Amino acid sequence: MKLSKQFPLNALRVFESVARLGSFTRAGDELGMTQTAVSYQIKLLEENIGEPLFLRRPRQIELTEAGEHLAPRVSDAFNILIEAMASMRKATEETLTIHSTATFAQQWLSRYIGSFQLQFPNIAVRLVTSGNIVDFQKEAADVAIRWGRGDWPGLVSHRLMKLDYSPMLSPKLAAEIGGIREPADLLKLFLISAGDSWWAEWFAAAGVKNADLSRYPKSEFGTQILDASIAIAGGGVAMLNPGHFQDDVAAGRLYQPFELTGNDGRDYWLAYPENRRNVPKIRNFRKWLLQKFDVEQDEHVTQKRQGLKPSQ
Q1: What dihedral do alpha carbons 240, 103, 271, 278 form, nearest 10°?
Q2: Less crowded by CB within 10 Å, the N or C end of the chain?
Q3: In contact, 192 and 236? CB cutoff 8 Å
Q4: Angle between helical axes of 9-21 and 65-94 (0-180°, round to 10)
Q5: Cα–Cα distances in Å, from 5 out to 12, 188, 275?
Q6: To the nearest 10°, the Cα dihedral for 242, 248, 252, 255?
Q7: Using alpha carbons only, what angle is made at residue 267 by residues 264 and 270, rounded to the nearest 5 degrees?
Q8: What is the four-CA torsion angle of 117, 118, 121, 127, rounded to 10 degrees?
Q9: Per-position DSSP letters for 71-92, written without gaps between them
Q10: Which domains does the chain have, with CATH numbers?
């Protein structure tokens, strides 16, 4: 049922208090209103209904028959609203919504989030992966783990880990060309997501001139997870963060031929709205996460807006 703008909700709230307390004065004290304001709201409600709700007697009031009929129903209605609000607050307090890049979610969070759940069993975790920068004002999110410089306006951000990058490939693929002995040997193979600026930066740092990356397709697969999957399958060389794929290296699925890594200043950050820094579930997650990364809990509050590249 659609409530009319003229529905006297505030007057009903005043009526419930007066009927329960049996006094205009005590109801005013409870609601933070003057006795005159209380009387005015009751008058509005009586005019809306078309019948008096109280008998005004010297130093006391009594409910009329109409008032006796209305009072318990109004009380029940407000109790239902109170219970509904309490239920929603409890659900909100007990569910932590994390927005994360897909790579970080799969390669790190999925491995360690269980220890957070064990430490805080009353907090349910909802994980959302996306390559977009979450808008905390428009989307349901408590915290975000993002790739960038930590300069998001209005957010508190904590650097978690450096996002270094280096070429990685399947050992079998490397063996097919007799091994990778120098950086230029990588150019004998297909470079996955060759349009990524990291390739040009890494080859320049490695001393390879005229790498001619323009001969490769400008395909982009959006996440390091997909690039790594292609590399593991022998489909080429991927530019990856070695820290994310140590298990694959240990299992012989991936191989990092050179220790040289690059870093363009964009790292992984924990971010959340400045005005929510003291919300218990956010405070608990922040403390747990920063301890995992052995990061001191100093805060970087961003003040300016800069262009942001999609998260990795």
Answers
A1: -140
A2: N
A3: yes
A4: 110
A5: 14, 72, 32
A6: -20
A7: 160
A8: 10
A9: HHHHHHHHHHHHHHHHHHHHHH
A10: 9-92 (1.10.10.10), 93-163+265-301 (3.40.190.10), 166-250 (3.40.190.10)
Beta-ladder partners of 158: 270
Contact 140, 273 (CB under 8 A): no
Q: Quick one: DSSP state of residue 186?
A: G
- Tell me how far CA of residue 217 lies from CA of 5, 21, 165, 311, in angstroms: 60, 77, 20, 21
Query: Both tokens of residue 133?
Result: 């920068």
In which element (H, E) is residue 147 found?
strand 143-148
By DSSP bridging, strand 143-148 and strand 267-273 are antiparallel
Q: Give tens-digit pLDDT for 24-72.
A: 989 999 989 998 999 999 999 989 889 999 998 877 889 999 989 999 8
Length reported for the chain: 312
Residues 163, 243, 146, CA angle at the centre, nearest 5°? 40
> Within its chain, how far is the Cα of 178 from the centroid?
47
Tens digit of each residue's pLDDT (9 = 90 or more) over 196-206: 889 999 999 99
